[in-house]
Amino acid sequence: MAIATINPATGQTVDTFKAFAPAEIDARIARAAEAFTEYRRTTFAQRAEWMRAAAGKVDAASDEIAKIMTLEMGKPIKQAAAEAAKCAAAMRFYADNAEKFLADTQFDPQSVSAGKAYIRWQPIGPVLAIMPWNFPFWQVVRFAAPALMAGNVCLLKHASNVPKTALRLQDVFLDAGFPPDAFQTLLVGSDAIEQILTDARVVAVTLTGSEAAGRSVAAIAGREIKKSVLELGGSDPFIVMPSADLAKAAEVATTARCQNNGQSCIAAKRFIVHAEVMAQFQDLFVENMSALRVGDPADDRTDVGPLATEQGRRDIEEQIEDAVGKGATVLCGGKRADGAGWFYHPTVITGITREMRMYGEEVFGPVAQLYPVADIEEAIRLANDTSFGLGSNAWTGDPGEQRRFISELDAGQVFVNGMTTSYPALPFGGVKSSGYGRELADLGIREFCNAKTVWIG
């Protein structure tokens, strides 16, 4: 895939970039390794000063940053502005909390026959981040902020369709005062990942992306005996029980499915509704989805912009065609918008069976699958009948049902009576084919640290 900015609202190429040659990649890795030798010795206070300055840079340039994201991947401009603000908040969160999160973990010295015993959390070196286009600032910042605050240095291989965003991120950290090579954007394609990850100077990798990409990167990291963290796809359930506030559930369901044009790993994708309230919820949900405004993502009034890539829209069309051909029913949408760009109308589809591709695949766009169930047992069984396990939503006012969903849903996160999202203060990650490891909170900053045991007699 060429490294290029292509406006998904028009399909027109805006700019192209030359990929780094192998020699340039080697030089960049060398600079990162050299930077780490000094950067790891900086204090938490110094790093926090730089990180707060970076947050200020993002706030000051939020309009510009939002326009770049919208131009490159079609995110509605109001959502892009919210993403920039979230990044600044995460930077300040780690500036405020990193030293506490990485304070020595003390143990009872008498139990190990020592005068002192503790864990010292130390940085490990240059970490490669392979990041996706769907949240092009947030996905990077939620790795980079804790990694930099821990004392690591970062090498970013961003998605090839968001090069301007990737370079703007590099500028943010440089302009904030971080050492020049503490955060570097590498303009490379996926064919360069193996060269980077097999380099002995690169000590670990984190990837957010597809299951196929995760398997490939994890295989290389495993062969090289390097730490990896993977955040992969999702097919999150959104369960609605009779005791739920149906109007609120349908409202949140619409946002949960169509935010970011439906292109989110933790977007609700499978709407599992108790038969007792199915008809009422379906009417509300279809009405809400049909009312969404599809159009120019640079317009503040737009709810749903284009898919980020032409291939992404083709994938959705093929999944819909397969389902309808095997008996599924489209309740609204189910077609591309007329005119230029890669737009697709918000869609609700029902009658999904195991033989259909979308039953087992992630649908990465504004397409909601609607499933009726007879009881909580069937709801849980259907929710877990997927290879993915990233997020999950359960809507119920019954405390007993809430306890069961929390205990029995196979997912990295369970949100009860609310929409799955990410917060700097909460760990984020999945199980099964949705990946392993955690981002954010205290767990996230410790992923790329050496937990060094210290025993003093």
From TrEMBL:
It comes from the Bacteria. The keyword Magnesium does not apply. GO terms for molecular function: glutarate-semialdehyde dehydrogenase (NADP+) activity; succinate-semialdehyde dehydrogenase (NADP+) activity. The keyword NADP applies. Residues 3-454 form the Aldehyde dehydrogenase domain. Its EC number is 1.2.1.16, 1.2.1.20, 1.2.1.79. Belongs to the aldehyde dehydrogenase family. NCBIfam families: PRK09406.1. This is Succinate-semialdehyde dehydrogenase/glutarate-semialdehyde dehydrogenase. It comes from Kibdelosporangium banguiense.
